[in-house]
Amino acid sequence: MPEFDLPTVIFALVALFVAWKLRSVLGMRQDSERPGGLLAPLRRVPNNSNPPVAQPEAARPAPAPQAPADRWKGVAEPDPAVWSGLDAIAEADRSFTPQAFLTGARGAYDIVVHAFAAADSNTLRGLMAPEALANFDNAIRARTAAGQTMTTTVVSIDNAAIVGAGLIGSTAQLRVRFVAKLVSVTRDEQGEVVDGSPNTVVDHIDLWTFERDVRSRDPNWRLTQTESES
Prior knowledge:
Blueprint: H1 6-26, H2 68-71, H3 80-92, H4 98-117, H5 121-125, H6 130-145, E1 149-168, E2 171-187, E3 193-196, E4 202-213, E5 222-228
């Protein structure tokens, strides 16, 4: 009767088991390997195409259509005119979401306020329409000519809400009310304070208007007008 080398037999069995496991794993195609499976939600559907309609899962009933008050609740004033404008923008640009817009608008507010104080016209140019940029640039030039410097800190942006919305042709227009706390001080050439205070937090309410051509591939909104209520 032939003798068996026990270690060799064990090694062979282990090798067969490993090979079987590899085949069972590699032979199955995972859902995430399907082309576009992970990237598809990130791709923007062109405006001139019909986006696919997602089918509800069998175990979940289809959600009921939202009323305008619920659809825009928390991002816009409860004003039928504002809701109607948001509906028109959302219909023209299926990628539009007010939550994402307001996140970007908050970021723009912070950048613009600090860039204006720092006399950084190049940064402002990338965020503003020409007419708005001209107003800011003129104020910066006047301040520089007077030998003054300005320092501003955005302490907090307490609220940002859409208070106006409309679609004029292909141009979407959104008006946002910002409620913020700022510390701002302007000094002369000798470093003396001529306006504001380095130690006082001041409440500000600003109305900013943003525009974007919904036909454009550029997703960025441009600041076109600024007003202050405080």
